[in-house]
Structures are given as structure tokens and as C-alpha cells.
Amino acid sequence: MTVTYCAPKEESHPCVYLPHVPVWCMRQAGRYLTEFREFRAGKDFFETCQSPEACCELTLQPLRRFGFDAAIIFSDILVIPQALGMDVQMVAGKGPTFPEPLKEPEDLQRLTAKVDVGKELGYVFKAITLTRHKIEGKVPLIGFSGAPWTLMSYMIEGGGSNTHSKAKRWLYRHPEASHMLLTMLTDVIVEYLLGQVAAGAQALQVFESHAGILGPVHFNEYSLPYLRDIARRVKDELKEAGQDVPMIVFAKDAHYAVEDLSQSHYDVVGLDWTIDPQSARERTGGKVSLQGNMDPCALYAPKERISDIVKKMLEGFGTRGYIANLGHGVYPDMDPENVGAFVEAVHQHSKQMIKKI
Ligand code: CP3
């Protein structure tokens, strides 16, 4: 299924001038919102992901409440293992669960060798097109994908894990099969991201959420080359069509890799809170824009304190080449008012800083 977005004439260009630093939050559509919980009640998670209307509604909910400067399409990174033929369920209180994870290299034969991305994931493309229309050009719409290593680790672990020992066992014991799986995933991800752009996504974020468990040596072998390949192939393909789309890489807990990530064809490097803004700037040398990185738990602080923390973060990053965000997603027990206070603080402090320049 090909889904193509055609911008209406009246839609403004997404790269409009903003008088403040742009801000959005990972998991801005989530259980911390009462309207999200009400809408999701009694519905299966992945069935919700498969309904373009539901995804559109959930994507728009946080925009109705807060002054976010971007929307991220409601979906999940685990739709790719599903497209490869794996069963994935979202179990309440437990999280994502694969009843039959990959155990040994022979299990790779269970995966669909040539995925028809349009057929298997066309519902995400439809959700993006519908949502892009509904946003009416007010803010850009971000599409996303999980990165190969993060998806591989879920497919082998069968769910969340502290040690990721089953997946890391493959890296030590089955390096060839690991590269095979990562390559398979990369091919699907590239097509999936290109499909999202054709459907109307105006920026793309690649989530390497399990980067931290790798360490620098394995990161350089099993994550970075694939992250690079994804950005290069997506960018090259778009360039041929005279297009470009900003790409963000978020490799959680991979602070050792920020220099490399800043030279990996991405336009923006997303940062978790374990790295100091100023040192991230120094280490990336102004080559890329940065995104992040307030500790999500700072949202438990009183509003005035949130404002002070935001001010310091803005001073560390500066207002140019910077997108404010949290260092990871909003948690379900967070007070929506504090999320609003975070957004307001970014706008207010950055406006003042920009005026002084
Ligand atoms: O608002 C947004 O950020 C857009 C939607 C989005 C979701 N998942 C919706 C979701 C995005 C970008 C993701 C990405 C995702 N999914 C990642 C990468 C980001 C990260 O957190 O590091 C990962 C690792 C997943 C896998 C996944 N899906 C997990 C670990 C969970 C949480 C399970 C739990 O019970 O806490 C999910 C479920 C999920 N995905 C929820 C949401 C809003 C919560 C469950 C629900 O709505 O019922």
C-alpha cells in the first residue's frame, strides 16, 4: 500500500521562525494524561496502533493541552518485529512481551525474508497522513523507528530486561547471525522511514533505547554502523527526489558515543540526562543540533524548581541548534501540570535569552 501525503496549498512551511527554543517530549502522548487513559481503556495496545483514527487522536491530545512545538506520531517501535512475523503483545503491568522470542540463529528462518513494508505497516502511514492533515501545519509531525540493536534485543529477550544477557549472548556467541539480523532490520527500517516521509512525516527520530547496555566496543560494532547506514540511505534516497528531512538519533546512555553520533549523517543528536549540556556542545563541536536532556524525574519537582532547572539547561545548550526535550519519556505518574510548566519554562526563558542576543 502506498500512502502519499500532498500538502494543501495553504499549509505553511514547517521551518517557520520561532521566537523561542522548540520543545516536545518523548512519550508526550501517554498515560499521564487522563484523556489518554480514558481513550485507551479496554482497548488492546497494538490494535490501537493499527487504527489510524485512534493514533491520530492520541497524537493530538497533548497538543490540545500544551504548547508543544512538534507532534510525534502515536505508534510503537515493536511494530517492526510484528511486520517480520513475530507475535508481540502488550501485557498490562509487564510491558511488551514476545511469546516466542528468537533463541538460536536457526530461529531467524522464522522471520519474513522480504517484508512488504507497505502492506504490513501501511496502517502507520495512514495514521501519519491523517494526523498531518489534522494538524493543519501548526507544528511539524515527527515519525520514528526503533534502531536495529534495540529491536534485536527485544526480539531475543522477549520483553524488557535489566541485563539483556540473552541478546548480548548472541553478540559474543553468534556474531555472524547477529549481523544478519541487524542487516535485515536495517533494510526494513530504511523502507519504513521512507514510507513515513512519503506519508507526511516532517522529521524522523531513531530510538536506540538499549545503547547503554552495549558499551563502546560493542556499540561501535553492533549499533553505530547500522545507525549510520539508516541515515545515509534515507537521506540519499530522499535527495534523489529533491527532498530532505531532519533526522534525530537518540541513543540512550551512549554518552561515550556523542562525537561519533554527531558525525553519523543525523542532523540532531538526542541526549539523555547523564551528560552535561555544555560538555555535549564541546564534544560535538557545533556540527549538529542537540536535543534533550532534562531528567524526566525533574518533573516531580515543584513548578518553580522546574523553571530554574530549565533555565540552567538552556544556558548550557544555548538557544541555537537546540531542541528542548526530556532525557527520556514522560512517566505515567507525572502531573500533566508539570509537563505544561516545563514547556512554558522553555518558551519563556528562551524568549528572553534570544532577545538579549
Ligand atoms: O508520545 C510518544 O512518544 C509517541 C509514541 C511512542 C510510544 N512508544 C507509545 C507507547 C513512542 C515513540 C514509543 C517508542 C518506544 N516503544 C520505545 C523507544 C523509546 C523509549 O522509551 O526508550 C520503546 C523502548 C518502546 C517499547 C515499549 N512500548 C515499552 C517499553 C512500553 C512501556 C510498557 C509499560 O507498560 O510501561 C511500551 C508501551 C507504550 N508505547 C506506551 C505508549 C504510550 C504505554 C502503554 C499504553 O499506552 O498502554
UniProtKB/TrEMBL annotation:
The gene is urod. Catalyzes the sequential decarboxylation of the four acetate side chains of uroporphyrinogen to form coproporphyrinogen and participates in the fifth step in the heme biosynthetic pathway. Isomer I or isomer III of uroporphyrinogen may serve as substrate, but only coproporphyrinogen III can ultimately be converted to heme. In vitro also decarboxylates pentacarboxylate porphyrinogen I. GO terms for molecular function: uroporphyrinogen decarboxylase activity. Belongs to the uroporphyrinogen decarboxylase family. It holds the Pfam family URO-D. Pathway: Porphyrin-containing compound metabolism; protoporphyrin-IX biosynthesis; coproporphyrinogen-III from 5-aminolevulinate: step 4/4. The lineage of its organism: Eukaryota, Metazoa, Chordata, Craniata, Vertebrata. GO terms for biological process: protoporphyrinogen IX biosynthetic process. The keyword Lyase applies. It catalyses: uroporphyrinogen III + 4 H(+) = coproporphyrinogen III + 4 CO2; uroporphyrinogen I + 4 H(+) = coproporphyrinogen I + 4 CO2. SUPFAM superfamilies: UROD/MetE-like. CDD domains: URO-D. This is Uroporphyrinogen decarboxylase. It is an enzyme of class 4 (lyase).
